[in-house]
Every structure is written in structure tokens, then in C-alpha cells.
């Protein structure tokens, strides 16, 4: 599919802008209606000023999306260029994010999870057949096409995707928690990194919490490098052996032994009748609430820690620039500013590359929304049981907006920080 950039002096002559859908570090997404028709698109508006020095990022995304046409992949419908902006007209999907839809269901079974994973596998297998590696598969990038119960799932966000032209890839990128061991080791890698990410997603879909987790990012990376995960009781007691076998093949430490997408599609948990039909919604939704409600803003901390880990590994074989801006852009939210505020720089120094509950507490204080945050204590049974929250809460004083500037929008005041984080945050704010 060839999409040439259509030149326009004013995008409003092509589309009627309806409302803002979201924004990122380099772009804004709006709901737009094509003039002369009822057709709606999600219009990604990218100022050229913001692209200076980073033009290849968007050009790569366009090059990838021009190649693809699949029912489970969000399509690029058109590209427009004005003197000041680049506009990507994307297929509009209205069904919401994966986790939100699971939480809204009346019931949810292994069979439902198997059907979801099968759809994503089909899309990723198609990408791989074209030589495309997505490199940032995660639940937030899996969207439902419509609000209806029978809606298909769609793979989105190709900002980190890459056309693998024969050679192995080497750029360190992705989202902490979903990156494969070979990527953390800065070894040449290929399509197998997508399969690993699908293994992580499959694990989460069956229990509601991630296979690799720790408040300490170095420990998180260590778990990934060892492929150290468990099927904990009681969360996995009612999950089939077939599902566990499927995940083991996807979370295989050695990329040469890891399943390909085609092999995964042929596994009986996907292609057969091995998935159990027992309702697991209660357990899964409870764990999703505990473990993922807070990740929307912690992800920004992890992205920088991930970058520091990679920088220690040395040279980048692909020769691509890997910067804080590039990594932050692909934390899904994209809410980091191009130039981090002073408190962010101070936090990086205070955290020394390890973003624990203590430094997260400092970050919360730095958000400066004038909110009285409720601080709870995290008590972990183990690395596989994150998010056990102690209900004893106390208010945390935060700085005023005039004192500190936040790169986040609408942070949740329910983030559990930990006593040490609260104390340090209060001290930093001059209590």
C-alpha cells in the first residue's frame, strides 16, 4: 500500500477537527471527520519543530505502516503534510484498551484469553512474514476495534517497529517488563523478542500480574535475564497445564529455542480445545487492579532506568541514537516533556538509577498538583505477588504547582508509595 504525503496548507480544509483524544511527547491525536463524508479518523498531528533531529522515527513508522494491511492491525489511512505539521490519519478504534475491557466483562475464561492471544499472534505472524519486528508489544498497545462484545483486538503503536532487512537488530528499545533477555544483554536480536513479549502478555491475561516484577529495576532486569518466573498458587491452580506449557515455550530464555509465531499458533492451547472454560474473572480482575492501576506513571521512571542499564552495555550495533526522548516517547503515555524539569533531574540523582518506593515518593512530591495523596505501605509476599496493599493510609503533603512542574497529566492520588518514600518526599518539600 503506497501512501504519498499529500500537501496541504491547512489541514482543516481536509478534516473537521472534532475533539482531542490524547497527546504525547511529540504529537497530539484528535478525532477528525473527513470533509464531504461521515468517515472518522484518529489524526496524529506532529509539529515539525518537535521532529527536528528525530525525523527518522516518524519516517520509519510510516514506512512500516505503508507495508501492512491486516484485520488485527490499526491501519494508516493517509498522510498529509503542511508547512508546519505532519499528519497521520489512522484507523479509528473505539473499543478501548485490553485491561479495561476485561474489567468490564461479566465473565472471563482461559478460552477468552486463548482467543485474544490467537488474534494477536496472527497479526504478529503476519508482521514477521513481512520482515517487520514490532519491538513494543504490551497490553496498552492492544486495543478493541469497537465497544461491542464480539469486537476484534487490534495491534497498535508502530513507533518502535523495524523492518528487518536480513541483518539482526541491535537497538535497545521497548518497555521494561516486556523486553526479552537478549535485548537487555545488547545482543543482536530479531523476531523472537516479539514472541517473548507475547509470552509476558499471555501470562498476565491468565493471572492479572506480570511474570517479572520488582520495585528495584536492576532486580527486575535480573529476573528477565534469568527467565525467572513461577506459576504461583493459588492464582494458577485453576489454569490448565496446556496454558502453562504454552507460556514456557514463549518465555524460553534462548531465542533459538523459543517458539516462532507459527509454532505458537499451532499449540493446542491456541488451535485446539485445551483451554479451560472456568470463569477466572474475579481473580484476574482483582490482580489487574492491584498491579496495573499504578503503572501508568511508574513506567516513565522505569524507562529511564532501562535506558541507563542499556547504556552500560556499550555500543549500539544498529547505529541508531538511543536517547531519553526516544525511550520516554515509547512508554505508551508519552507524557514526558522533551526537556525534563529540574525536579526530574534531581530525582535521577537521588534515585541513582534505582527507582524504588523511596524515589517514587520523591517523584510524587515533585508532581505538585496540590493534592493530599494517600500513602499506603506495600507488603510483598514475594516477587510474584506484587501489589498487596496495606489499607492504613496517611496524607502526604506535596509541593504547590508554582514550586515544581510535572510532566504527567492527572496522576492518580491513590498510588501506594511506602513509608520511606513518604518521609523523604515530605522532607524534600520542606515539611
UniProtKB/TrEMBL annotation:
Pfam short name (any one): Pkinase
Key words, A-Z: ATP-binding, Calcium, Calmodulin-binding, Cytoplasm, Kinase, Nucleotide-binding, Nucleus, Phosphoprotein, Serine/threonine-protein kinase, Transferase
Subcellular location: Cytoplasm; Nucleus
Gene3D superfamilies recorded: Phosphorylase Kinase, domain 1, Transferase(Phosphotransferase) domain 1
Enzyme type, top EC level: transferase
Residues binding ATP, per UniProt: 49
SMART domains referenced in this protein's UniProt entry, alphabetically: S_TKc
Annotated Polar residues bias: 400-412
Domain annotation Protein kinase: ranges: 15-270
Highest taxon of source: Eukaryota
Region (Disordered): 377-431
EC number: 2.7.11.17
Compositionally biased region (Basic and acidic residues): 420-431
GO cellular component, one term: nucleus
UniProt GO MF annotations: ATP binding; calcium/calmodulin-dependent protein kinase activity; calmodulin binding
Reactions listed under catalytic activity: L-threonyl-[protein] + ATP = O-phospho-L-threonyl-[protein] + ADP + H(+); L-seryl-[protein] + ATP = O-phospho-L-seryl-[protein] + ADP + H(+)
Family named by the database record: Belongs to the protein kinase superfamily. CAMK Ser/Thr protein kinase family. CaMK subfamily.
Protein name: Calcium/calmodulin-dependent protein kinase type 1B
Organism whose genome encodes this protein: Chrysochloris asiatica
